[in-house]
Amino acid sequence: MDEDQPKRQPVFVKVDTLRPGTNGHNLVVKVIDCKVVVSRTRPDGSSVRIAECTVGDDTGVVTLTARNQQVDMMILGKLVYLRNAKIDMFKGSMRLAVDKWGLVQEADQEADFTPKTDFDLSAVEYELVPVTDE
Prior knowledge:
Elements: E1 23-41, E2 47-57, E3 60-67, H1 69-73, E4 79-90, E5 93-97, E6 103-106
Parallel strand pairs: 3-5
Antiparallel strand pairs: 1-2, 1-4, 2-3, 4-5, 4-6
């Protein structure tokens, strides 16, 4: 890659634009709720923590699956940046996840919006329907 080319600025999207099976999303969301669902110690001594957090913006909310160090950043009421997030399907509903290729950052500003909690994208159940050619 050319060193002369400047880095592109990230394009941030809103929660209501998320669709199943998509990736590469950049979002600015507020943490509404967070519950640790897995907290185990592996035989090698390392620990595994997984939390399901409800995050959202002024267009809707979605469930975020936070792993290990990401769990520490999920503080209620805090604003976080999610970079290169993807949508995973879990039991027919959408879950937002940030894997090793993405980044979760605490925002240095306060949220200037109130999350729209009555539009929960993770509450919508999707079904895979096979399409037949006729």
